Amino acid sequence: MLPSPAIRLLLRRFALLLAVYTLLRLGFYGLNLVTFRGIGPGAVAAAFVHGLRFDVAALLWLNLLLVLPSLLMPVASRRGQQWLRGLFVLLNVPGILLNIIDWEYFKFIGRRLSNEWNTIGHDIAQQAGQIGLHYWYLAIPLAGLVYLLWRLCPMPTRAELAAPAGRGRWVQRGMEFLLVVGLVVLGLRGGWQLKPLRTGIAFEQQPAVLGHLALNSAFTVLKSFDEVQIDRVNYFPTTTALRPALNAAPLPARAAAPTPPDNVVLLLLESFGSEYTGVENGGQVSFTPFFDSLAVAPGARLMRENYANGRRSIEALPAVLSGLPSLMDEPFITSSFQTAELHGLGEILGRHGYNTAMYHAGSNGTMGFDMFAGIAGMQHYYGLNEYPGGAGSPDYDGHWGIFDEPYLQYLNRRLTATKQPFMATVFTLSAHEPFSLPAKYQGKFSVGTQPIHPTIAYADMALRRFFAAASREPWYAHTLFVLTADHTSQSDRAGYQNPLGVHKTPLLFFRPGPPLPAANPHRITQQVDVPASVLDVLGLAQEQPALLPFGASVFDPAASGRAIFRDGDSYFLVHSDFVTELTNKNEVRLYPYQTHFIPNEPVANPDPALVQQYGDELRANVQFYVNGLLDNRLYK
Question: What is the pTM of this model?
Answer without folding.
Answer: 0.79
